[in-house]
Amino acid sequence: TPTGQNGSNIVPPTTLQGGLAYSHNIPGHTKLSMAVDVRKRNDEKVAVPVGVEACWQNILSVRAGYPISEPEASPSFGLGIHWPRYGIDYAYQGNAVLSSSHFWSIEIDY
Q1: Which of 110, 74, 108 has its CA nearest to residue 91?
Q2: pLDDT score at 78
C-alpha cells in the first residue's frame, strides 16, 4: 500500500457494484424496464440505485431513477428519441450539495 507524505496509508478508491434488470412488454407497443443495483464504495455505506424506463415502439424512452441510501441522494430523469440510425438522449441528475448535472448523448449507428 502506498504511503502519503505524512506516512499514512493511501487507499485507492474502489467500488463494487452489481445489479439486476427486468423488462416486460405491455400493451400499446411499450416495453417497461426496471433495474436495481447494489453499490459499495470503500468510503460510503451501501447504496441501492433503482430505476425505471418506459420505451414506446423503440422510438421514445422516458427514464427515472433514485439512489436509495446514498449520501446527498437526488432523483434523476431522462428522455431518449431514437430513429433507425440515430438517437439523442438527455438526462438530468440533481445533487443536494453540488449543482445539478445535465447529460446529452448522440448515437450514430453505422
Answers
A1: 74
A2: 97
Q: Which distant-in-sequence residues (6+ apart) come within 8 Å of 93 by Cβ? A: 74, 76, 100, 101, 103
Per-residue pLDDT tens over the stretch 46-67: 999 999 999 999 999 999 999 9
Query: Looking at this protein, which amino acid is placed at residue 9?
Result: N
